[in-house]
Amino acid sequence: MAGLISFLSPCVLPLVPDTFLNLRRRRRATEDEGRRSVPQGDAQLRAFIVGFSIVFITLGAISTEVGQVLAQYKTLLARIAGAVIILFGLHLTGLLQIKALLADTRLHNLKGSSSAWERS
Q1: Phi/psi at 96 (5° precision)
Q2: CA 86 to CA 69: how far, in whole Å?
Q3: 94 CB neighbour count, 10 Å cutoff
């Protein structure tokens, strides 16, 4: 069920029709050349579906395990998150200055950088 839900997620679902169309196009191009490609095209499609299923079922299972482990520490994690939010709020109001959050690092100023900013 988790694999199906992740397959239908907004991030993944738009990729599915394009992948199926790409496999179908390959199959049709081979058929146009006069070769019989139905078994090969079907095999590619099946391999895609099996691979896709394995990946997302595995990701779903791992996410479930991580969620169950984190659920055991829900109270502690909520307190830590609350403390971090309070610290960030104090920093934003100026009542507390966190030096690490005031730093400004720019990669294009590093020596040896190939950034377009240095060339202009």
Answers
A1: -140, 130
A2: 25
A3: 7
For CA atoms 58, 64, 67, 69, give the dihedral sign.
negative
Residue 95: both structure tokens together: 């009542």
Nearest to 41, CA basis, from 53, 29, 52 = 29
The C-alpha atoms of residue 88 and residue 100 are separated, in whole angstroms, by 12
Structure-block tokens of residue 54: 């394995």
Residues 6 or more apart whose CB falls under 8 angstroms from that of 57 comprise 2, 3
Q: pLDDT tens digits, residue range 78-90? A: 999 999 999 999 9
Q: Which residue has the tokens 């990946």?
A: 55
pLDDT along the chain (120 residues), means of 10: 72 73 68 58 73 84 93 96 96 91 74 53
Beta-strand runs (E) in the chain: none
> The pTM is what?
0.44
